[in-house]
Amino acid sequence: MHIAILTFDGFNELDSLIALGILNRVKKPDWRVSLSCPTEVVTSMNGVTLHAQSTLEDACQADAVIVGSGMKTREIVNDQSVMGRLKLDKTKQLIAAQCSGTLMLAKLGYLDKIPACTDLLTKPWVQEAGVSVLNQPFFADGNVATAGGCFASQYLAAWIIARLEGIEAAKSALHYVAPVGEKELYVDRAIANITPYLPQR
Questions:
Q1: I need a surface site. Which of 2, 78, 94, 195 has the fewest CB within 10 A?
Q2: Helix, strand, coil: what percent of the chain each, to 5?
Q3: What is the pLDDT of residue 200?
Q4: How far is residue 63's CA from residue 60's CA, in Å, rounded to a whole number?
């Protein structure tokens, strides 16, 4: 099981790394979470440099993909040398996006007739791309999910874990990272946000 977090130059650390941390709370031999980048090294919006753990091509074969956000997303969506490498399949993969990553999904055509969540700064650009923006932290339609606001990355991670490993695994991962003294409240709120968008069993 491979979950890829697309991470580009100018990336937002909170989006990529919170998801990475929560997703890695699933401790199974075949569970792998990686930062997938277009180059061997990427530097965040605050100057943090990371080495890629996988490529964009690897992400196209992953079981789930999170498109992270960053300050250069508007440039990236106009760069065909990057966008042309992203051949995802929402019939076979879980595809999620965080904040300006939603703009990337819109430009790639994965939000056709699907409303989405994004951050307030990116909202007009997503609307300009023809996508209706919701005033909520998380939304999913089938295998495609979006979230708005840096801390909403917890909902993307929880949704992916719930879809791939079940709701109890998602609760366990969230409980581990939740603040002491607020764990039940924190988990309950997160699960309440994703439950309406999980397949009915």
A1: 78
A2: 40, 20, 40
A3: 79
A4: 9
Coil, helix or strand at residue 43: strand
CA 90 – CA 108 distance, rounded (Å) = 12
Read off the pTM. 0.96
CA distance linking residue 179 with residue 25, whole number of Å: 15
Q: By three-state DSSP, how is residue 152 classified?
A: helix
Taking residue 187's Cβ as centre, other Cβ atoms within 10 Å add up to: 21
The predicted-structure confidence for 43-72, as pLDDT tens digits, reads as follows 999 999 999 999 999 999 999 999 999 999
Across the chain, mean pLDDT equals: 96
* Short-list 77, 56, 189, CA closest to 122: 77
